[in-house]
Design brief:
The complex is a heterodimer of chains A (380) and B (80). Chain A is an alpha/beta fold and 380 residues long. In chain A, 29% of the residues lie in helices and 26% in strands. A six-stranded mixed β-sheet of chain A has the order 5-2-1-9-20-19, covered by helices on one side. In chain A, β1 (3-8), α1 and β2 (33-38) form a beta-alpha-beta unit. Chain A is globular. Chain A starts with a strand and ends with a helix. By secondary structure, chain B is α+β, with helices and mostly antiparallel strands. Chain B has one domain (12-72): Translation Initiation Factor IF3. Chain B contains two helices and four strands. A four-stranded mixed β-sheet of chain B has the order 1-2-4-3, with helices on one face. The chains are: A alpha/beta (380), B alpha+beta (80). The A-B interface holds A 155-156, 160, 190-192, 195-198, 218, 220, 234-236, 249, 264-266, 273, 294-296, 328, 330, 346-349, 351-352 and B 11-24, 26-27, 30-31, 46, 49-50, 53-54, 57-59.
Chain lengths: 380, 80
C-alpha cells in the first residue's frame, strides 16, 4: 500500500528534504511512497541574499529561481498554500479547500518577520527580512547623508549573525562611498554582549573599536515613536535615530498558529531536540526554523537537520523507531567587510571557538551563495 | 521554612549557544502573562551573571537560581 509523505513548506529545508528523500527512495528501489511538497508560490528566494540587496551590493533577481526547476523527478509539488493541519485526521487542508491525507507529515514552514508585534515598527523602522523591506531600506540608505543609523534587534529572529554582518558591511560601504564621516552607526544588542556567541561578541568588539562603530547592550525594543524618531526599550532607556534599521521579531507560520494542538502561541512546534519528531506525535517531524528548539533559526542548522530527519523518516516508513539524533550543529559564515569573512561552528556539547577573518573565507561564503542551489538538490 | 516557588513554564536551553538562554527567556517572557514565573535551564556558566543583570535592568524579578546536575535553573517572574 502506498504511503504518503507530505512536506509543508518549500523553503531551504522542505526543498532539500524532498529531493534527498526521493533520491533515497530510488536507491532503495521503493515505489510505494509518494512525496508531496506543499509550497506557496512559483518562486524560491535565497533569503540570505537580502542582506546584499539592502546594501545595494546585488540585485534581487540574482537570488531567485523557479521552485519547480529545483526539484528532482518524483517530488510532487503543489503551490496551493497549506491553510490548516489536522493531526487527528492526519491531513492538511489547502487554501483552495482541498484535503491532503498524510501517513507522515514534515513541518518545514520556517520563521516569519512580524512587523506589527512592536508598536510603531512598521512606521518607524526599515528592515531587510523580506524583499520589499530590503528594497525600501536600500533606497533609504542611498539618500541618507548624515545623522545616526540605529540598529535594534527583536527576539527571536532568523540568522543571528545577519544584524552584525549588516552593521559591518554598512560601515564598509559607507567608507567606500566616502559618506561615513557624517554618519554615526549605533548597534544595539538585547543581552550583555554584542552577540550571543561569546567569541563573536569579542571579535565584534574589536572590529567596532577599530571602525568607530558605537554600541549599547541590554537593548530590547518596546515601542517605536516614528514621529519623534525614538525607540523606547524594555530597559527604560530611549534611543533617538535618524534612520532606524530594526530586526523584526519573528513568529512561526500562520498555518501553525491556525491549526489546533500544534504549536505554541507564537507558532513554534514542540520538537524533540534529538529525533526532530514533534513531541507527542510520531507521525510528524519538524524541520528548521519551525521548531521550538533553542537553536539558531538559520539555513545551516536546517541543512544539518535534514540528514537526521531523513534517516528517521525512512525508518518510520519501515515501522522502526527513530534512532538518528541531531546534535545541535550549526555552521555560519560571518562577513566582516566586502573582502573578508570568518565563520563559527558549534553544537549542543561543543561551544564555538574563534576563527580569524580572512579573504579566503569571504570567497568561501561567496561561493556558498552560488552553490546553495546545488545543496537544495542534495548535491552538497 | 522558606516557601518553594514553582515555575509556571520551563525552557530547556541547555547547550544553547545561539541565541542562548537569556534570549530564550526574553522571548518567552513576551508570550506569558504578568505574574508568570519562567524557569530557564542553562549549561552556560555566564547565565548566572547575565540573567540577573538583565532582570534588574528590565525591572523583572529574579526569584531563584538553583544549581542542578550540570546546569543552573534560573527562575524569573514577569512583573510588567
Amino acid at each position: 500500500m502506498t504511503q504518503r509523505i507530505v512536506i509543508v513548506g518549500a523553503g531551504s529545508g522542505g526543498t532539500m528534504l524532498a529531493n534527498n528523500l526521493v533520491k533515497a527512495l530510488r536507491e532503495q528501489q521503493r515505489d510505494d511512497v509518494e512525496v508531496v511538497l506543499v509550497g506557496n508560490g512559483e518562486d524560491h528566494l535565497y533569503q540570505p541574499g537580502l542582506l546584499y540587496v539592502a546594501l545595494d551590493l546585488e540585485l534581487p533577481a540574482h537570488f531567485h529561481r523557479r521552485q519547480r526547476r529545483l526539484l528532482l523527478p518524483g517530488v510532487h509539488l503543489t503551490n496551493i498554500p497549506a491553510a490548516r493541519i489536522d493531526r487527528k485526521e492526519q491531513g492538511v487542508q489547502l487554501a483552495d479547500g482541498s484535503h491532503l491525507a498524510y501517513d507522515y507529515l514534515v513541518i518545514a514552514t520556517g520563521s516569519h518577520p512580524d512587523l506589527d508585534e512592536i508598536s510603531g515598527f512598521r512606521q518607524g523602522a526599515y528592515s531587510f527580512y523580506t524583499e520589499p523591506e530590503a528594497l525600501r531600506l536600500r533606497d533609504a540608505l542611498r539618500d541618507f547623508r548624515q545623522g545616526r543609523i540605529l540598529i535594534t534587534i527583536g527576539i527571536p529572529h532568523k540568522c543571528p549573525v545577519a544584524p552584525l554582518e549588516f552593521t559591518l558591511l554598512l560601515d564598509d560601504v559607507l567608507r567606500r562611498q566616502e559618506r561615513r564621516k557624517e554618519i554615526e552607526i549605533l548597534y544595539t544588542y538585547p543581552i550583555a554582549r554584542l552577540h550571543s556567541l561569546e567569541p563573536v561578541a569579542q571579535w565584534a568588539q574589536e572590529q567596532f573599536e577599530q571602525r568607530d562603530i558605537h554600541s549599547e547592550i541590554f537593548v530590547n525594543m518596546e515601542e517605536i515613536d516614528a514621529n519623534e524618531q525614538v525607540v523606547h526599550t524594555m530597559e527604560g532607556i530611549d534611543y533617538s535615530y535618524d534612520l532606524l534599521v530594526g530586526i523584526p521579531p519573528h513568529k512561526g507560520a500562520a498555518v501553525i498558529r491556525n491549526s489546533p494542538d500544534l504549536g505554541d502561541p507564537d507558532g513554534w512546534v514542540p520538537t524533540d531536540r534529538k529525533t526532530l519528531q514533534m513531541k507527542g506525535d510520531e507521525h510528524i517531524f519538524v524541520l528548521g526554523d519551525a521548531t521550538d528548539l533553542p537553536i539558531s533559526k538559520a539555513g545551516s542548522t536546517t541543512h544539518y537537520e535534514v540528514a537526521v530527519l531523513l534517516g528517521n523518516l525512512l525508518r518510520a516508513l519501515d515501522g522502526s523507531r527513530a534512532t538518528q539524533t541531531y546534535n545541535g550543529k550549526a555552521f555560519c559564515f560571518i562577513e566582516a567587510d566586502e573582502a573578508q569573512a570568518t565563520y563559527i561552528t558549534f553544537d549542543y556539547d561543543h561551544p564555538p571557538q574563534p576563527v580569524a577573518a580572512s579573504p579566503l573565507l569571504h570567497w568561501f561564503k561567496a561561493a556558498y551563495n552560488e552553490t546553495y542551489w546545488l545543496s537544495l538538490r542534495g548535491v552538497l | 521554612m522558606a516557601e518553594t516557588i514553582h515555575a509556571d513554564k520551563t525552557i530547556d536551553a541547555r547547550g544553547s549557544y545561539c541565541p542562548g538562554p537569556l534570549m530564550e527567556l526574553i522571548k518567552t517572557l513576551k508570550q506569558v502573562p504578568v505574574g508568570t514565573v519562567v524557569e530557564v535551564w542553562s549549561s552556560d556558566a555566564g547565565s548566572k551573571r547575565d540573567i540577573p543583570q538583565w532582570a534588574e535592568r528590565a525591572k523583572q524579578e529574579l526569584v531563584y537560581i538553583r544549581d542542578e546536575d550540570g546546569y543552573a535553573a534560573i527562575g524569573v517572574r514577569k512583573v510588567k
